[in-house]
Design brief:
Elements (H helix, E strand, L loop, with lengths): L13 H22 L7 H8 L3 H9 L3 H5 L2 H17 L9 H19 L4 H34 L2 H7 L14 H5 L72 H5 L4 H31 L10
Amino acid sequence: MAGTPAVEAPRDRLDPLLAAAEPLLSRVDEVLAAVGAPAGHDVWPELRRVRLLPGDAVRAVAALHPAAIAEPVAELRAQARACAATADALPLVTDWSGSAAEAYETARRRTAEQLNAGPDSLSRRMTATADLADALTDWMTRTRRDLAVTLADVLISAPALTLTAGPATGGPLDGLMDAQFLGSLSGPLAGSPSGLLADTPGGPFTGSPGDPFTGSPGGPLAGSRGGPLTGRPSGSLVGSPGGLFAGTPSGPSAGPASRTGLPSPEEARAAADIAAVLLAAVANSYDRAEDLLDAAVDLKTAQPV
């Protein structure tokens, strides 16, 4: 009888959203690397948690492939059942006795224990590995889905417009702002004026316009060799002497940064606001993964021989 075909999980929207968000993520990373963030901003603890700039953090989540982890689970469970069946099938000593029979029984019990009976048996470890793979598959699926919703909100937020504002046409978000595309995004935050990143009273992006801006070209996020958050040669976030977003004054990224050479305080705050939300989403998700790995205590020690 033919086996039941596996049901493919529905694909999330993270990959197409990431493709649309690349200009914005690059801009956020560039601004943070150039001038840092306002003092006391929520982004600082998130940067310490993740130790990545937001663009790299989002790309790391996009590189998660749940199907690759789920694929060996069925084989692991089949092998666990085979170990248990082999242990049960080992013949008992019935009609013979003596030293040879005693030696055989000792070997039989030891083999059965290694295959199935003991707490560190092959079958139990394979089952535990399959359980962990299932849990990690669910975690990856949820992590990708949750980040896709967060990224969708970021793309239509006021801080994103601050960083990508340019001419009326040709902006990097033109294709994304299509109403049909936004309407296809799942989750309560998509396309909503009161979404997570909406610039409304009480939202995460409200605050005092007079907050001091303390970033400087030599700040802790500066793209210097050996910097704590870049780990890249000087200027690697800029891409060229003219800057990643350098171009003609009418280019899609033209704004205060392209006119003055450094991002404005408004741009720095917008970049920090976006980074704080994205990094918090990634950090919270990876905390859940750490909990899963901590719970897999049976797999942390080598199997006794």
